[in-house]
Amino acid sequence: MKIDNITAYLVRIPLKTPFRFADSPIDHIDTVITRMSSGGVDGWGEVFAGNTPALTGEWSRGVFDVVNSCLLPLVRGVGSISSADALNELLLPVKGNRHAKASLDMAWWDLQSRLNNKPLHKAIGGTKDVVEVGLVFDQFDDQTQFYETLKRVEADNYRRVTFKIRPGWEIQMLAWVSVEFPSFTVQADVEGALSMESNMETLSRFDDFMLQALEQPIGVNDFVGHAMLGETMRTPICLDESITCLTDANIAIDLESAKVFCLKSGRVGGITEAKKIHDAAHAQDIKSYSGFDIQTSIGYRFALALGSLQGCELPTDYIPLNDYLTTDIGEPITTKVITEPKPTRVVELWKAPGIGFEPDVAAIEKLAVMKSE
């Protein structure tokens, strides 16, 4: 595939209401959007690494700088890129910086699937036309508001809910939810905040609530600790931040560190690597699900595409973007309820090529605080 041009944007979008990211409220997102062109057709990618390096060590301003200064010079002028693996080979001189590499990988996949007249989810081997979605909740300061929100969620037929576990908002909160909302399938995300040395009593208590999974209970690099914890608990262990590449996934598989993987294309370097991680996990009967951090609908189409893969047996994360973004530069996702085998909130995947829509270029240009040279 001949590449005519690549443009990267650092886009700042104010939020209607603060969103908690890495346990801190943010009032805007700085997201990196990449446009890759061939023969008059554009492919798009998006990654949000955070407004500051608070989660993975990368952040969106830094991602943009790496794309602009380090990655674009490697791929511009090459002429053509025959495959996603060939693109990633070109990027090998730059170490790490997985979000930055993901922005190009995702744009390549969107462009390639558009040129082949295939929806992105079909181009990467997705087997589903409908993907179940679930909501993620961070700490609420007002219990009445929390209760009323969960009542609406239950009425809207969201079946899986994930709770971010924070100090003082953990066991008692889960106990209350299990009594008040027994219809929910609950997942708890610890984000690596506990340790087996200091918090074993708390960790063992999670078994009381029949959780679908306990996500990232201890440190990111502690694959052995997660394996030991998995031997002592009934609750399936899920790895999220620990899985940054196929090598990490293979270590976790070999040590039996988890029964579930959370896939995020930005964190692992793109759709190409995420698909390889999914395939390795699926071959060993490890379930996956597609995670999502707040971005525009460009980024969310990639999360849904991953969620369509056969091994993604758990619901895909969902954020009602219209509740947060003052401007969405794409086509918002619409959820619906299916009634069989029981009422469940889902997304019907699109039939149009690529990510299924043309982003609003004028809005991107207007909101961009930086643009590649």
Descriptive report:
Helix content is 35%, strand content 23%. By secondary structure, it is α/β, with parallel strands linked by helices. It has two domains: 127 residues, Enolase-like, domain 1, CATH 3.30.390.10; 227 residues, TIM Barrel, CATH 3.20.20.120. Strands 4, 5, 6, 7, 8, 9, 10, 11, 12 and 13 form a ten-stranded mixed sheet that branches. Strand 5, helix 6 and strand 6 form a beta-alpha-beta unit. The longest helix has 18 residues. The mean pLDDT is 96.
Question: What's the short version?
Answer:
By secondary structure, the protein is of the alpha/beta class. It has 13 helices and 14 strands.
Helices, strands, pairings?
Layout: E1 5-21, E2 24-38, E3 41-47, H1 60-75, H2 84-90, H3 98-115, H4 120-123, E4 130-137, H5 143-155, E5 160-164, H6 171-180, E6 185-189, H7 200-205, E7 213-215, H8 223-232, E8 237-239, H9 246-255, E9 260-263, H10 265-268, H11 271-283, E10 287-290, H12 297-307, E11 316-318, E12 335-338, E13 344-348, H13 361-367, E14 368-371
Parallel strand pairs: 4-5, 4-11, 5-6, 6-7, 7-8, 8-9, 9-10
Antiparallel strand pairs: 1-2, 1-14, 2-3, 4-13, 12-13
Keywords:
single chain; 373 residues; alpha/beta; Enolase-like, domain 1; TIM Barrel; 2 domains; ten-stranded mixed β-sheet; four-stranded antiparallel β-sheet; 13 helices
